[in-house]
Design brief:
Length: about 150
């Protein structure tokens, strides 16, 4: 049997846990009692957003039903805002489970990327301009707040 290099135990010091604790800054798009949405710092396309549950879940295997539902509903809000702000229909919803799949942050998260599977940029490759991320976060947040 193949040995898998899996991270199955939740690390309280992972970068998204630090965001939820208010220990590091991020560009917020939306927040409610069960989820947080913010700009991906190394976007695979302009407007790349991550949605995380406020639950200590490494990946999909750990996600509790109420948080799964909440992440999906927040993802829907974000996607609808991306469609409006970027004036495009095509939004990729992506989620990686395990290092073998390319997961690099071991707190469950959904990627929402205004792009096409045929044009998608490299994963976690280049830092975006912070001012630009802040401006996009504010645009998306304004659209979500108006709904
Ligand atoms: P994954 O490889 O699916 O675990 O994705 C992790 C994502 O988190 C990548 O797209 C990274 O660009 C993103 N990321 C890493 N650190 C930060 C951070 N401090 N703020 C926002 N996004 C981040």
């Amino acid at each position: 049997m193949t040995e898998l290099n899996q991270q199955t135990i939740y690390d309280d010091n992972n970068i998204f846990a630090k965001m939820l604790n208010g220990d590091i800054p991020y560009h917020k798009v939306y927040e409610d009692d069960k989820t947080l949405a913010f700009m991906d710092i190394m976007p695979q396309a302009e407007g790349h957003v991550l949605v995380i549950p406020k639950q200590k879940a490494v990946d999909l295997a750990d996600l509790e039903p109420e948080y799964a539902a909440a992440v999906l509903m927040t993802s829907k809000k974000v996607m609808q805002a991306q469609r409006q702000v970027f004036e495009r229909e095509g939004i990729i919803q992506m989620q990686l489970n395990g290092a073998q799949a390319g997961q690099t942050v071991f707190h469950y998260h959904v990627h929402l990327i205004p792009s096409s599977i045929h044009e998608l940029g490299r994963h976690a490759a280049a830092m975006a301009d912070q001012e630009k991320l802040a401006a996009i976060a504010s645009q998306l947040a304004t659209v979500i707040d108006a709904e």
